[in-house]
Amino acid sequence: MESVGSIIAYWIIVLSIVVFSVLTVTARKILRAATYLLFTLFATAALYFKLDYEFLGTVQIAVYAGGIVVLFVFAILLTSRPGDNTDRLTSRKKSLGILAAVASLAVTGYAFVSRCANLCTELQPMDNPTMKQIGETLMGTGQGQYLLPFEAISILLLACIIGGVVVARKR
Amino acid sequence: MFCCGIYGFITRKNMIAMLISLELMLNAVDINFVVFNRFLFPGSMEGMMFTLFAIGIAAAETALAIAIIINIYRAVRHVDADDINELKY
């Protein structure tokens, strides 16, 4: 049985993820939405740490919080004047969004409840994946090892760099 | 979280806000990968690897999308998705 403190920590993380993601999509000022997104990403990283995936949590913080959110903030400051709010939503659009959200919630909730009853069991103990394991899984060519996707990702990133420069440069 | 992302993607007008909602959805899927891997198959690393690749792809996609958005902003001076209905000609 897990300790009470561990369960409380889980609940705090989950609640902060939910609350901050709701705030992200409902904030009127877009810069605040980006800040709430940052908090959501941090809570996600905390969840990864809590599930013993330390490498993944570090990558999450480094890439998302360090890279993507900074990029968002730059883009927001470049494209909007300070102090302008988004307009009030029209009720039709709002109800459409809520409908889609509730529908997807129903589908995922149904799948979760019907299929994953054994998920509520106790968490089995697991060693942290060591750096050696991660490296061998990432760079090996055997079964269950991921050299080819790794190379594909590197090609994709190269294409993205070139594409970004071409799209965003001044003529 | 995924539902929040869908809600935001449909209701927001600003393109950057739509992109933020997209990031939320990607994160929800990542959490799903990791949690199912941890609970159902502890010891194997498939979910973790897929999450790593998903994070990489998300970074690339965000960079490119923001480049496009800034370019559009230069052309038409605003970033509302509803009003951008014409291409170059």
Describe this entry's structure for a reader.
The complex is a heterodimer of chains A (171) and B (89). Chain A folds into 2 domains: 126 residues, NADH-ubiquinone/plastoquinone oxidoreductase chain 6, subunit NuoJ (Four Helix Bundle (Hemerythrin (Met), subunit A)); 42 residues. Chain A contains 6 helices and no strands. In chain A, helix 1 packs antiparallel against helix 2 and helix 2 runs antiparallel to helix 3. Chain A is globular, with a radius of gyration of 21 Å. The relative contact order of chain A is 0.06. The model of chain A has no long low-confidence stretch (mean pLDDT 76). Chain B is mostly helical and 89 residues long. Chain B has a single domain, classed as Orthogonal Bundle (Helix Hairpins), CATH 1.10.287. In chain B, helix 1 packs antiparallel against helix 2 and helix 2 runs antiparallel to helix 3. The radius of gyration of chain B is 17 Å and the shape is elongated. Chains A and B meet through helix 1, helix 2, helix 3, helix 4 and helix 5 of A and helix 1, helix 2 and helix 3 of B.
Q: State the fourth-level CATH superfamily of the largest domain in chain A.
A: NADH-ubiquinone/plastoquinone oxidoreductase chain 6, subunit NuoJ
The biggest chain-chain interface is: A-B, 70 and 57 residues
The geometry of chain B reads as elongated
Order of helices and strands of chain B: HHH
Instruction: Assign a percent range to the helix content of chain A.
Output: over 70%
* CATH level 1 class label of the largest domain in chain A: Mainly Alpha
Number of helices of chain B: 3
Please specify the SSE layout and strand pairing:
The complex is a heterodimer of chains A (171) and B (89).
Chain A: H1 4-26, H2 30-50, H3 54-79, H4 91-115, H5 131-139, H6 147-168
Helix pairs in contact in A: 1-2, 2-3
Chain B: H1 2-11, H2 15-40, H3 46-76
Q: Features of this protein?
A:
heterodimer, A: 171 residues, mainly alpha, Four Helix Bundle (Hemerythrin (Met), subunit A), 2 domains, B: 89 residues, Helix Hairpins, 3 helices, 75% helix, elongated
